[in-house]
Automatic annotation (TrEMBL):
This is N-acetyltransferase. SUPFAM superfamilies: Acyl-CoA N-acyltransferases (Nat) (SSF55729). Residues 5-155 form the N-acetyltransferase domain. Keywords: Acyltransferase, Transferase. The keyword Zinc-finger does not apply.
């Protein structure tokens, strides 16, 4: 299946449906919830959080949040940092994660960005294999929480 998604602004009208999107319980140690993402965004305005729900038709199937065009500083990786990416448990394995990232890459290129950074906790069940399969490579650095930092050169994507 070639996933068709669209990134939609989160509003009062769709917030509850978007917040209800959850990963598999075994993945919760690696991926924070949408609700936690909203809280983190409110608590860290200096990270310039940008977030969208990922929809397939009228159904939210995922969520993405970035730090958008920030000056890197202690605790803030940037200028473009994939802070959260999640696909609902019942929607995984259908290409939605890659489709969401493809949309993000297109938006970043349009904004003049050349790379996207992210981080992940290493270990069994980590999203690291997904990110590496998409084209992210380890930078050799870790963040203050011990997460591995990965880089995607946007020119490497079709």
């Amino acid at each position: 299946m070639s996933a068709q998604i669209r990134l939609v602004e989160v509003t009062d009208a769709n917030r509850d449906a978007v917040t209800a999107v959850r990963v598999h319980p075994a993945q919760e140690q690696f991926v924070a919830s949408v609700e936690k993402s909203f809280k983190d965004a409110l608590e860290n305005p200096e990270a310039n959080p940008w977030f969208r729900a990922a929809y397939d038709g009228d159904e939210p199937v995922g969520f993405v949040m970035l730090s958008w065009d920030v000056t890197p500083q202690p605790g803030i990786v940037g200028p473009y940092f994939l802070w959260r990416l999640l696909v609902g448990a019942g929607h995984q394995g259908r290409g939605y994660g890659s489709a969401i990232l493809n949309e993000v890459v297109a938006l970043l290129r349009a904004a003049g960005a050349t790379e996207l950074l992210t981080s992940c906790v290493p270990g069994e069940g980590s999203p690291e294999p997904f990110y590496r399969g998409f084209g992210f490579v380890p930078t050799g650095e870790t963040d203050e929480d011990g997460e591995v930092i990965l880089r995607l050169e946007l020119a490497s994507r079709p």
